[in-house]
UniProtKB/TrEMBL annotation:
Gene3D superfamilies: Leucine-rich Repeat Variant. One of its GO terms (molecular function) is protein phosphatase regulator activity. GO terms for cellular component: cytoplasm. The keyword ATP-binding does not apply. Residues 246-270 are annotated as: Disordered. InterPro entries: ARM-like (IPR011989), ARM-type_fold (IPR016024), HEAT (IPR000357), HEAT_type_2 (IPR021133), PP2A_Regulatory_Subunit_A (IPR051023). Keywords: Repeat. This is PP4R1 phosphatase. PANTHER family: SERINE/THREONINE-PROTEIN PHOSPHATASE PP2A 65 KDA REGULATORY SUBUNIT (PTHR10648), WW-BINDING DOMAIN-CONTAINING PROTEIN-RELATED (PTHR10648:SF7). It comes from Rissa tridactyla (Black-legged kittiwake). The lineage of its organism: Eukaryota, Metazoa, Chordata, Craniata, Vertebrata.
Length: 270
């Protein structure tokens, strides 16, 4: 019964935590018994079971309970199979979504060598606009996961494609994550490539795209500033914030906050 399998998947993370804490007694139990179940249920015929499996996988990754070898030899291969061009549409959408979510939890080398090539392919998926939209909405997170060199060499060309996509929702998602993408690039790329691209979004024919671009204008401009003098920095959750100066901290003035969040980089994309 699918409900039984779903309930089982919900119990996997707490069992894994118990096994981790009791590793001397159960050194190979997770690897031998639980990990194969998680991987198998990512391809279950029931979508609720698959969803439970995906949530369990993310929790296990977040808690650092999956060995690097298992990630590279078991998890990534199944996600690459599910997101292949000839894969079922529903499986492909789910796979690209989980790839984007897990990118920030993996090592840069693993993301760049195993997942980035497929992500770049999915950005150009001409069959499913849902796949391209997930890529656009999470583009800033992928850039942050792979770093400047891979972003400028592989991702920026794909970002240009998505920013000129025929579906306005794609262009809107790009406008919303523009600051996060810009923050990952060099000042020269921001000036010579991203600035003209942003102007095209702020002049878009769709008012929803223009509105999203105007909301990202200030955060995008802030990426040109020197963090040491401007006091601007990016938090781990992807928000642009202001670091208070020593004078402000020591003053007795009543300020609303010492740490002001200006705008989320790549969340709330619709």
């Amino acid at each position: 019964e699918p409900t039984v399998r779903t309930e089982l998947m919900e119990q996997i993370p707490p069992i894994a935590i118990f096994l981790q804490e009791s590793r001397p007694k159960f050194p190979t139990a997770f690897f031998e018994y639980l990990m194969p179940i998680v991987v198998r249920y990512l391809t279950d015929v029931n979508n609720q079971v698959r969803k439970a499996g995906q949530e369990a996988l993310l929790i296990l990754l977040e808690q650092d309970l999956i060995a690097q070898s298992d990630i590279e030899n078991k998890v990534c291969p199944i996600l690459l199979d599910l997101s292949a061009p000839d894969s079922d549409d529903e499986y492909k959408v789910e796979a690209v979504n989980i790839i984007c979510k897990m990118a920030s939890m993996l090592s840069r080398t693993t993301v760049e060598h195993m997942l980035l090539p497929r992500f770049c392919e999915l950005c150009s998926d001409g069959k499913l606009f849902q796949v391209r939209k997930i890529c656009a909405a999470n583009f800033g997170d992928i850039c942050n996961a792979v770093g400047q060199e891979a972003t400028e060499r592989l991702l920026i060309p794909k970002f240009f494609e998505l920013c000129s996509d025929s579906v306005w929702g794609m262009r809107k998602a790009c406008a919303e994550c523009f600051m996060a993408v810009s923050y990952t690039t060099s000042p020269e790329v921001r000036r010579s490539k991203l600035s003209p691209l942003f102007i095209s979004l702020i002049s878009d024919t769709c008012r929803w795209v223009r509105q999203a671009a105007f909301q990202s204008l200030g955060p995008f401009i802030s990426t040109f500033a020197n963090p040491s003098s401007a006091g601007l920095y990016i938090r781990e959750d992807g928000t642009l914030s202001i670091r208070p100066s020593t004078q402000d901290v020591n003053s007795n003035s009543c300020q609303p906050s010492n740490n002001i969040t200006l705008m989320s980089s790549s969340t709330n994309a619709t």
